[in-house]
Amino acid sequence: MRILFRHIKSLVGIGQPEAPLRGDELAMLPSLENAWLLIEDEYIHSYGKEVEQAPPAADRILNCSNRFILPSFCDSHTHLVFAGSREAEFVDKINGKTYAEIAAKGGGIHASAGKLAAMPEEQLFRESMIKLDKIAAAGTGAIEIKSGYGLTVDAELKMLRVIKQLKVHHRLPIKATFLGAHAIPPEFKEDREAYIRLLINDILPVIREEKLADYVDVFCEKGFFTPEETIRICEAGKSIGLIPKIHANQLNVSGGVQAGIQVGALSVDHLESMDEEAITALAASSTIGTLLPGAAYFLRMPYPPARELLNAGAALALASDYNPGSSPSFNMQQVFSMACIQLRMLPEEALQATTINGAFAMQMEKQAGSIYPGKWANLLLTRTIPSLAYLPYAFGESCIDQVYLKGSPIK
What we know:
By secondary structure, this protein is an alpha/beta fold. About 35% of the residues lie in helices and about 20% in strands.
């Protein structure tokens, strides 16, 4: 099936950068005005300007006057395989309890781990498929999913096997991350070394044998895992082919950024707590800084210093951090808007951070994240809007008229 979109007001995010966009590059959004776009089956075939090149023949032609076409969002940090919700903790936070206080009383990650351990694998798979359907319909065209709500051998492997099945049964492109080092389980509180050995000696060999993950992640934070432990776990993951992605500097200046850079992490994620040393180190490295404004919003924390990071020349991505405890939203349109309003990112910067740099943060830049021949036809067709800036400006309005996933409309 060949579908031709004609008279597009602006075809946004075209081209294929060779590396993640850094600093000022994020503001330089390549677009084509008064354009046409041809997709063939699952892929982008070609595009051009209406006045310069006659569009090719197609089976179906759509008039897109006064509308924009954008690449779908690439959400490079989620925890969507979880059981149940945690709205009781939401009320606790309203009443003044902190994230750390809730975790210390058995809430937080440990509460989700208990619910997940009790849920049968088939039910966890079914519920995760439903979430993926909603996520795709909201405009996400590629996604990363972490384990980390298991915290036992059986439960962590259950999560990873569910993610593997999601890769097979859902059209949304998925990358899998092993985050067994999300927290120290209560039974290992007095012997954290034993838990780290369990991760390395008992779970990693099964991941290698069953090909259950693409990445290894560690929550490098005060009260969770130290930079030294983070490096050790990441090096063990690298020994079986897993690439590191680090939870870094969310609650404190934890040393997680530098630990991630040391192990060659693809990305360091969160970055709400940054000092000059961490900013400078990240900007000088090839590691992507992934900002998660939904978590800062939900936890009422300071937002990541996006402008300082961009001014230093860092490569930045934006992701949802979708999870039941600190960011229960998968809406990347909302992330796009938050980045402009709260992080002071320009619409062009925020869009490229949620698309092509998000794709780079999942090693999917050859398949997703921009509009280019040969890539998947994962596209967003807007309603009639006056400008690109209207998308984040009208934060309470859904401006997406149609979502295409691998060439097929799903909304």
